[in-house]
Task: structure prediction
Amino acid sequence: MVHVQPLQGQTAPDVPRDADHPRDSLIAHFGADKPLKLDAGLELSPFQIAYTTYGTLNADRSNAVMVCHALTGDQYVAQVHPVTKKSGWWETLIGPGKSIDPARYFVICPNVLGGCMGSSGPASTNPKTGKPWGLEFPVVTVRDMVRAQAMLLDHLGIDTLFAVVGGSMGGMQVLQWAASYPERVFAAVPIACATRHSAQNIAFHEVGRQAIMADPEWRGGRYHLEGSNPRRGLAVARMGAHITYLSDAALHRKFGRKFQDRENPTFSFDADFEVESYLRHQGSTFVERFDANSYLYLTRAMDYFDLAADAGGTLAHAFKGTQTRFCVISFTSDWLFPTSESRATVHALNAASARVSFAEIVTDKGHDAFLLDEPEMSGIVRGFLEGARKARGLTGR
Amino acid sequence: MSATTNDFDAAKIARNSAGARVDLVLVSQMVTRGAKVLDVGCGDGELLHLLGESRDVDGRGIELSREGVNECVAKGLAVIQGDADTDLADYPDDAFDYVILSQTLQATRHPRAVLEHMLRIGRHAVVSFPNFGHWTVRLQLLFAGHMPQTDILPYSWYDTPNIHHCTIKDFVQLCNTIGVKIEKAVALNAWGSPLRLNAPWWFWNLFGEQGVFLLSRKD
Result:
């Protein structure tokens, strides 16, 4: 149904392996002298972080904005994606004249640790064996991702971020940044996220992982070595997850019970309904750009995320004494990270006497709303950052 | 229903030559410079903005209406969506120097609990409210025999968000009941001018269209 054009000069998507050499990206290498200490109790060394930047760092290095991507996002936040050729995933928010304008801010977007677009992860080459890590790669956490990002910041010679912005798993990183490095974050914008992953969300992730692992092509995670690829398993995982990013109302509005290119049911298990066809398309395009093992690792990292547990059981303690200003945003129809989760975050921030703004935006577009053109969200992010800029003394540029 | 932008008709409140609402100016003058302030029911953020500009305060707000909140946040104000009746409980003791309840008391479900929380969270509280003892209100009930409607309280009885009206006298009594110290009290007439300071309470209760009170804990 979907015809993927072979990329020029390539025979398969994993040659020249974006997992090691991502196109149109910068790469920070961390050698044996700079190991990454992981929550699992191991050290990762050497490792690399792929990232993109937009705009210019000002003279006193105070205008840096880190953008954290979600589960299946990557560093191509405001530029054409080298694999899919689609425009950047947050160009509604980032770009000339947008809420986060590179004319004002130095935007940094790293690929997460455990990802598959150039930062070290299960799809990367294990330097010790010269072969892809696969399941030999250590299990990482959101805190590990942020630790690696802090090392990237050191590498760039930037002490303090003006702001950290992200949605969903990106929002978890934002909250982790504020908890781990409060003195390095002036303003934080966690969108459509939570301080912990709920049982329901862990359950959804587990279904996705089981779909991947049930695919015979997965080969116990050794598919890179054995020349196979668990496309069907990963596609099913994506299809299931994609439903959770939408809403009943949005699905109904978009597809209803409409048939796909036919008048009547075929009395078969073909994709009779438009919504089925749409999901299959989502699944099949996803596998062209994403690594199945990476999907296992990143969903696991989200499952493990629990800021309150890290702070001795009391969420407010995670933000004790914080001077960071927060802008928490949620969406009415988001049932993956419902407003109640954001409200719990806000309550904890209030209890910590943090300077916090919180807005809930009315939409029927579900969790995905944060990635779509939501003028109200753009306006709020713009206004919040403007206020923070004044407080930071960054105006006049 | 409480703490909305629509509790009363702000457009009908007197404004000074600089265009600022006189009641808000009066409230802001009760707040010390540079203080940490929580504005409960902050509406579109006019008072928070005024406090930031004129008193250099570190201001936060709670607002029930989503439109009000989003407007405030887009202006760069630290405002959250929340309800005075339920969300004040989440704030720790002594988190603020002043907690302000501007024209919102009459729309809360539990005015006494709200007031007690305000003085737990903040060392001082500033409360302003429309006085239901004003002579125009009294005359409407007495002679016209219907629930009073005024310029600043334009609602019919069946659709008003204002469920706990009180008079200045009632409010003073509540302060006495819960052991709150009245540091300062001002009554404004319909033109937004303060009534004579040495006037007796009954005079204020009859001729004050709004009461503005600065409170503190009695200890």
About this structure: Chain A touches chain B through 26 residues (CB under 8 Å).
